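Predict the holo structure. Ligand: magnesium ion.
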Amino acid sequence: MTTEKINTPVPADDERAGNFIRTFIDEDLESGHYKSVHTRFPPEPNGYLHIGHAKSICLNFGIGHDYKGLTNLRFDDTNPVKEDVEYVDSIQEDVRWLGFEWHDKPYYASDYFDKLYECAEELIKKGLAYVDDLTADEVREYRGTLTEPGKNSPWRDRSVEENLDLFRRMKAGEFPDGSKSLRAKIDMASPNINLRDPALYRIRKAHHHRTGDKWVIYPMYDYTHSISDAIENISHSLCTLEFEDHRPLYDWVLEALDWPVPRPRQIEFARLNLEYTLMSKRKLLQLVKENYVDGWDDPRLPTIAALRRRGFTPEAIRLFCDRIGVAKRDSWIEYYWLEKAVRDDLNPQVKRVMAVLKPLKVVVENWPEGETKEFSAPYFPDEPDKMPFRPLTFEREIYIEADDFLLDPPKKFYRLGPGREVLLRWGYYIHCHDVVKDENGEVTELRCTYSEEPRGFGAGQGGQPAVIHWVPAASSIKARVRVYDRLFKVPRPKGDLKKEMSADSLVECPEARLEPSLGGVKPGERFQFERLGYFIADEKLHTAETPTFNRIVSLRDKR
Ligand code: ATP
Ligand code: MG
């Protein structure tokens, strides 16, 4: 299979840290159009935030911070049926966890419902909006296509008085859902379909999580967004590319209302697409609701809550966002860059210890029965001065990783096999001279002898023994370890969950063993298990009785 060259995280100069956006902002400040910078992050509370939102958060709050300006958090809560306070709470938690603090208090588009309604009446009075009786299907029919102009609705020329009367009665709840809408009167022949009399209000008799049953008409996204930005004195409204064609409408609304200048300026950037995962909120919701994964914080998801539980740090996510830059065109980012940011962040700060995920018992026959020896091993082997040592116990019975032994090892397998020798990390050389099997022929135990010096049975060059990890059998701690991997097996999933999801995104190791020094670990503590990857004691499930670790990331990428 050939893979086309995928976007690297080395952004073009003007895309680094959103520099093309910064150039616009600099121009606007120099010209005196704006005195200061005020951005906003406007999530719709209809799901949990994901790594794509993190990109938008880093951009908006980053610019607010760098220009000594302000950044608002605004819930774009105009769709009553899909929204929920659970999401409002999780979004605030996630933004804070990423390391950002919003200006003042959380804002809500729903706080502007009165103002938005007033503005709509103003548009009607100016002859710039009308109540339409076409059904949704008819509206679609009348809209035309990319190549053909639309046609005017038969209701387009209602008088201002009639429009006002009908709009007020819409608000009073006199008409059923979908029977009428309020539309902007712009141009049904516009080459930009967004300007073909877009809807401003629709009837929706639904309970809203903040305004209750006060409203039965709800404002549409584009209309709400421009006015909300303007109310909050936003200077630069940064949004994803699919809104590029909506920008004329964004500007039209404020122009039509004679909104005082300076008005907010919309600037578009490319949304993040990350390989082997999905960003669509609808699909993420499906994964959660249909139990493909175990809740919004299942460590395999790209949600912030899941990445946090997986053990990613906010620093790593910010580093990733920084490195990928802010592009002007849509692209896919390799999963590798996310993992690399995590490794780069964890590497200097995380202690190295040993754990065995799939234990294979080794009896060291020339080690005296009942005797133990304690020695110490450094937490940071590459930087011996950095941290203290931890004690490690050697016993007659130890566990090694089952994958480090093969009955009939091929040439390139340098680890343990019958007649071979390896070095136990921080310990002795062991030489395997016997193998114990069960009735099915499965290897259940190795019989070895130890020595302080190598004896030339190693499988590496010149009999050089490989180094493997191990834990003592009696004094190690039993743990369950979950090895997480990519959720999808195809790099650019389209959303066919049954076909595209990977079967190995979670491998449970219920019999794992940890070295004794991991006895008092608290939830949320991170370690490198040597040779295996970075791991975190699970925030939700880890206890002293049932130690539970998640793999954050492997040590090497599989690009
Ligand atoms: P919806 O389809 O529900 O609108 P959304 O992903 O756009 O989904 P919002 O809550 O509207 O979700 O997003 C909040 C902000 O985050 C928006 O400004 C949006 O442009 C930005 N955003 C969303 N997804 C991404 C992404 N993948 N990359 C960068 N920014 C994103
Ligand atoms: Mg959106």
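The longest strand covers residues 429-437. The mean pLDDT is 95.
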